[in-house]
Each structure stands twice: as structure tokens, then as C-alpha cells.
Amino acid sequence: MIVYEHNKLSVRHLKEADAGLLVKWLSDPQVLTYYEGRDRPHDLALVKEHFYNGDESNVRCIIQYEGQDIGYIQYYPITDEERTEYGYDDFPGTIFGMDQFIGETDFWNRGIGTELITSMVRYLINHAGAEKVVMDPQAWNERALRVYEKAGFVQKKYLQRHEWHEGEYRDCWVIEYASTK
Questions:
Q1: What strands lie across the sheet with 68-77, from one edge to the other?
Q2: If residue 37 lies in a helix (H) or strand (E), which one and from where to where?
Q3: In Å, how far from its chain's centre is CA 180?
Q4: What are the residue ranges in the chain where pLDDT is below 70?
């Protein structure tokens, strides 16, 4: 089922049959450099554990460009624990988080990531009731941070030693897009 379409981009719900795509993408060292880590290639069992675990709070999707499956995106209301950690205890509104990667590296550096982030944020605000959208990219990932900045995100809080990646805890930025609706 299609979640939304924007120009040549579409986002559809993840299906059981997509497991092979996730295995392909999450065993590619180039992709793993930025998502999960090169020391964590995913086989079918790990993909099923992480992406098909029955957790209904995450909406898991496949990104398509001109009809071709090129990546993965998920969105979810952030937890109370994340609200506290990210500094949103006093914000009563709806906050969504999202995570994504483009698994087909031939589609990197073509502006598709910026279009994806911009269109997904618009979808979350207009159709899911998000008042803020947050992410926590690793601080060293300057390419991703530039994409998010182009899409209107601002850095809100620096989290030291926040995420385990390739054998060490990495610093992350909490970044935010606030709706002006």
C-alpha cells in the first residue's frame, strides 16, 4: 500500500517479500558505513528480527524512485524515554521520529534524500498530526546533516556517546523540524 507519492518518489508499506531487499542493502559495506555499521551485516534472520518483529509503533516503509525500490524509511511517535532524553518533557504536542537510508548507492548524491526528507516531513505534519519531527544522526555524518539542514531541520541537542556504531559509542545530534501549521 502506498503511503504517499511526490514527483518521482513514492513511499509504500514494507511487505514480507521485501526482506531480501533489506538483506541486500544491509550487507553492503557502503550502506553499513552510515546505517547499522560495517561490523553488523544483516542476514535474513537479523532482518526478520529487526524489521518484522511485530512492533506496531513503527511504520516501516520502502522508498521507491521511478518505481524502483531504493531504500527504507520508518516513522513513529517518539517514546516518553526519548522525549526526556531529547529535551522535550515540557512539550505537550505530537512528536514523530524517523530513520531512513537509501540502499541503492547509485541513487546517492542525486538530491533524492532531500526530496524524501522534505516530503516525509510534510506527510507527517499534514496526515499524521506531527507538530515536530526529530532524528538523532551521528555527529560525524556531515553528509546526512547537510541533507537534513536543507530540509529545514535544526540542531537542538548534542548527545555524547549516544549510539553504538562499529565498536564504539558515537556522539549524535538531536535535530528537529518544527511545524509552522
A1: 2-6, 9-13, 59-65, 68-77, 95-102, 132-135, 168-178, 154-165
A2: none
A3: 22
A4: 181
Q: Which three cell numbers stand for residue 70?
A: 531504493
pLDDT tens digits for range 28-78: 999 999 988 898 899 999 999 999 988 888 999 999 999 999 999 999 999
Q: Rounded to an integer, what distance in angstroms lies between the CA atom of residue 159 and that of residue 7? A: 35
Look-up: residue for cell 553499513? 32
CA angle 55, 57, 60 (to 5 degrees): 75
Sign, CA dihedral 57-84-153-181, equals positive
Alpha-helical runs (H) found in the chain: 19-25, 29-32, 44-51, 80-86, 112-127, 142-150
Angle, vertex CA 84, rays to CA 95 and CA 155, nearest 5: 65
